[in-house]
Amino acid sequence: MNAMLRLVGWILALALVALPVVAVLNGWIGAAHWPLTKLRATGEFERVDGALLQKTLLPYAQRGFFAVDLAGAQDAVSKLPWVERAEVRKRWPDVLEVTVFEHRPFARWSGDLLLSEQGKLFPAKGIDVPKGLPLLGGPEARVSEVVELYNESRAMFAPIGLEVREVGLDPRGSWTLGLDNGARIVVGRSEARARLSRFVRLLPQLLSQQAQVLKLADLRYTNGFALTWAPVPAPAAVPQQQGQS
To answer: What b/e sequence results for 81-95 when a residue is b if at least 16 CB atoms lie within 10 Å of its CB, and e otherwise?
Structure first.
C-alpha cells in the first residue's frame, strides 16, 4: 500500500512539473508573458505583399515565443504569391524573423503558370504578371529542354534582328517557335537545332527577295522548307486636318 502511495506521489509530482512546461510550449499559458511583438523580414524581394506577409504570420506570433509553430508559419509563408521558399525563426526575447526568397520570373508557361529563373513553375493566378515575358510551353518534365532551345534559338535569330517570343513543345515532341514579327516556325521533332541553323542562315536572303511578310515556315523537310507569305499590311490612313476659315 505504501509503495502504491509513493508511486502515485511521484506521478503527481512529475505532473506538477511537466504540466506547466507543456502548457507553455502549447501556448496555453505564457503567451501574454513572452509575446512575439516584432516581425523582422529579410531578403531581396520586390513583389511579395508585405501586408499579406504580416497578416499570415500574426496568428503564429500570438502563441508566444515558446509555443510558436515555426514549421507551420514557414509553410504558410511559402504558399504566398511570388514566394519561392521561406525560412522562419524566432529570436529571443520577442522577434519572429522571416527570410523570403522570391520567384524571379523568366517566362510565361502554358496553363496559367510562370517559370522562374530557377527553373521552377509557379501559379500566375492572383499576381500581376510582368509584361514582355516570352511564352514557353511543353510537358512539365521537360522544362529544362524548352528553356535550352529557347536560349539557343534566341542567339541564332538575334544577329538578323529578330527575336524569339514563343517556344512550344507538344506531347509528341514537335517544336514550334514564334517570332516578334508574327512569323511561326514549325521545326518538327528531329534535328531541331540543325534545321533552325540552316533556316536562319538563309532567312535574310529570303526576306530581301519578297515584298510580303513571312507568316509561316515549315522546316519539316529533308532538303528545304515551305514558306507561307502574307501581304504587307497597308499603312493606317492619317486623317487630314481641314483648314480653318
So the answer is: bbbbebebebeeeee
